[in-house]
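User: I'm writing a short report section on ligand binding and want a predicted complex to refer to. Could you take this sequence and magnesium ion and write out the structure as tokens? A short remark afterwards would be nice.
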Amino acid sequence: MTRFIALVSGKGGVGKTSLTLALGHALAKAGKRVLLLDANLETPNLGLHIGMMSSRKTLNHFMRKEVDLHEIVQEHKDYKFSFIPSSTSYIEFQKTNPQDLKKVFDHLHNTYDFVLVDSPSGVGNEVYHVLKNTDEAIVIVNPTVSSVMEGLKSSELAKSHGNVLSGVVLNMTSWLARHEMKEEEVENIIGSQIIANIRHDKKFKKALHNQAPVTHLSPSSRTAKEINKIKDHLLMNFDN
Ligand SMILES: Nc1ncnc2c1ncn2[C@@H]1O[C@H](COP(=O)(O)OP(=O)(O)O)[C@@H](O)[C@H]1O
Ligand SMILES: [Mg+2]
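Assistant: Sure. The structure tokens for the complex follow:
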């Protein structure tokens, strides 16, 4: 059975794309069959994070029934996961209806162990169509009151679509955690457990520049350990 997991947040820039990539890398390293789906149709950038941009066909073409699934799936030879890019072209975006996302989910049933969906931010139409087609959601928040309140909205939207809330990832926390929301406060507001607390780490900048998952760049860092906690949390409930 394929588990469809959406990484969601209320605000942009909280770390969804970076963590989709790192978590996908960690799961693939654990021997799972993993596909990363860039469902952020408006501002797709998972391909940029991983250096898998190409002129090849994208999710947009598949959604318009112009190509078959195998034509849009790319395999990463080093990280051993698969990837479906969305088009970065504005014209392509204009020609794409988010409602057609269902088609790709329908084709991915019983293919991979995990399909990680890098989702659009917010609670608008695009994320609605992602959550309609996924089973689980991980909410990513930064330790600010606004990020957490937006995260609460994302979690409510996910639950209203029948998604299991796998947990909350608190990202970009600081060492002393002064002037920022504490774990317990975040858990109380969102009503779900924090499955990882990832510090603000400049290795993310390096990872983005090197187009590599941070877990590959620094496998024994504290950051990689926290990302592995998300992986372990997901594998705990792995029923294959
Ligand atoms: N824990 C972290 N520490 C420092 N920088 C981070 C961390 N997580 C993500 N980033 C950086 O923050 C920026 C936004 O991250 P991104 O994954 O693109 O967010 P989103 O997909 O939610 O918009 C990127 O430049 C990324 O490298
Ligand atoms: Mg993103």
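A remark for your report: The chain has a mean pLDDT of 95. Residues 46 and 177 are 29 Å apart (CA to CA).
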